Each structure stands twice: as C-alpha cells, then as structure tokens.
Amino acid sequence: MRCLVLGAGGFIGTNLCRGLVAQGCFVRAFGRRQSFPELLTGCHWISGNFSDPTSLATAIQGCDVVFHLINATTPASANLDKVADLEANVVSTLRFLEICRETNIKRVVFASSGGTIYGVPNLIPTPETAPTHPITAYGISKLAIEKYLSLYEYLYSLDYRVLRLANPFGPYQTTLKNQGVVAAFVHRALSGAPVEMWGDGSVIRDYVYIDDVVDAFVLAAFHKGSNRVFNIGSGEGRSLNDIVAAISRLLGYEVNVYRRAGRSVDVPVSVLDTELAISDLHWVPRIKFDDGLRRTIEWMKSAGV
Questions:
Q1: How many domains does the chain have?
Q2: pTM for the whole structure
Q3: pLDDT tens digits for range 156-178
Q4: In this structure, what CATH number is given to the domain that contains residue 10?
Q5: The domain containing residue 64 runs over which residues?
Q6: Looking at the annotation, which residues are catalytic?
Q7: DSSP string, the chain
C-alpha cells in the first residue's frame, strides 16, 4: 500500500508513519515541520503547507490511501477566530478532496474528534449514533469535514473512513501546541512546576494510548465493511484529578496543582462507546492506562521533553 500521511511531523503522524513503515507500506510524509526527524527514517518526507494545492497535489500523486491528520487549531483557539478556523480546516480540506477525486485516491482516513463532535452528550459512553451538537468551532469543523467526506463518496465514489479519536497520549507528544493533558501534566510534574488545571478537576475524559490509535488507523485503511465512522477510545473515563493522582503515584511524590477558572469549551464528561470499532473494525485497545502513562513518563524523562 502506498500511503500519504498529512500532518506526519506531529504526534499522531510521527507514530503512524512508524507503524506503517513497520507494516511494509510505502510512506510519503507531508507536513510543515518534523518534531522528531530521526523517527521518520524509511519515509519520503515532503515539506509543504496543507493550504497550498500545488504541493499537496505533488504529495498525493501515486498514492492509494491518504491519512488526513492535519488540524490548524485547537478546541480552545478555534472559537477565538471562527472564520480562520473554517478557512484553515474545512476550506483547505475541500481543496484536498478535489485533488483526491482528480487523482483517483482509493481511500481517505480522517482523524476526527470524539471529544468535541458530540458536544454535551446525552448518553455515556457515547456511541457513533448519538446526536452531534458541538459546542466549539473546532468540533463543528470536524463534523463538517465528516459530512463532506460522505458527500464526496456519494457524488464521486471517494471511499473514506472516519476515526473519532478520544484523547491520545504517549511518546512523542510534546507541549508545543498546548494540546494533550497527559503530556502537559507530566512535563510540568517532571520539571517541578505545578500542574495547571482548568476548573476543579472533575472534568472527565477518555484517554487512549497512541499505539492503539495507530492500530486503528491501519485497520481503517484496510477495512472492508459498510460502516464509515468509528469511535476510538478506551471506553473508560478519568477525571483530571485522577490523572494527577496517577502521575503522583508513578513518580513517587505529590504533584502540586495550580487551578484556573473553568472553561466553557470543556464538556463535563466525554467517554466513547467503542463497541462498533471492536466488532466491525476488529480493533481492541491493548494498552492499559497505567502502562501507557508509565511508558510516557519514561520517554519524557529520557527525551528531556
């Protein structure tokens, strides 16, 4: 399989490229920068901007499957400039889909957001069939892209799969984009600084280890069933206070917490129902949270991140 990974220099992209190479795939890696260039050995790196159709068309040419991991905003930042969020993510993706249609790409696998798509869910754990009422521009953009993928399959037979990811964590996640609770908390704890927490710590999220996420992407590339959208998470909820307690337990000392005011963009509880991914995608999360956290701490210590 000839693959293109968009956003290959980021956390998920770096790990996915390594996983695809290990599977024996030809991997073309596309992005603005590489966080860990030494890890992309075996990939053909192409430096470019997602908003540039010319460089994107060059990268796509000759590939079978494209993994779309690029997102220019975060749930917090997207609300600050909704027009910019729409242009950077949705409009750029539409141009990308046009290129895919013209170059006969076999499948697009899109990284959506299980934590923002559903908004404040009325059912926990939340299945793929739940209503989608995002409360952030970030979630609205993700949902719009999902709908456009469905439209392009209907109009042009462009095959696709969507993975609604929970909160991935693990090695090679840095704090540069101000995303990733586990990475941010571990980084602060290891540096001796207090963890910065929004609200009282009761916000509950679903955390899934990055190796399990990579497995899901690979399975989605080869999936033969009729379902298009899959939740990818642990199916278990942990509060921010639980995360701090787990880090303290593994480090062997109490981690201090600096609390900020709660944010309106934070859904109180988000836990994904993964039964469809287990039954139809044949995906099962293998790494328990504590094991994944231990591996993450060990990596951050060795990397000095």
A1: 1
A2: 0.96
A3: 999 999 999 999 999 999 887 76
A4: 3.40.50.720
A5: 2-169+207-234
A6: 138
A7: -EEEEETTTSHHHHHHHHHHHHTT-EEEEEES--SSGGGGTTSEEEE--TT-HHHHHHHHTT-SEEEE---S--HHHHTT-HHHHIIIIIIHHHHHHHHHHHTT-SEEEEEEETTTTTSS-SSSSBPTTS----SSHHHHHHHHHHHHHHHHHHHH--EEEEEEE-EEE-TT--STTS--HHHHHHHHHHTTPPEEEETTS--EEEEEEHHHHHHHHHHHHH--SS--EEEES-S-EEEHHHHHHHHHHHHTSPPPEEEE---TT--SB--B--HHIIIII-----S-HHHHHHHHHHHHHHHT-
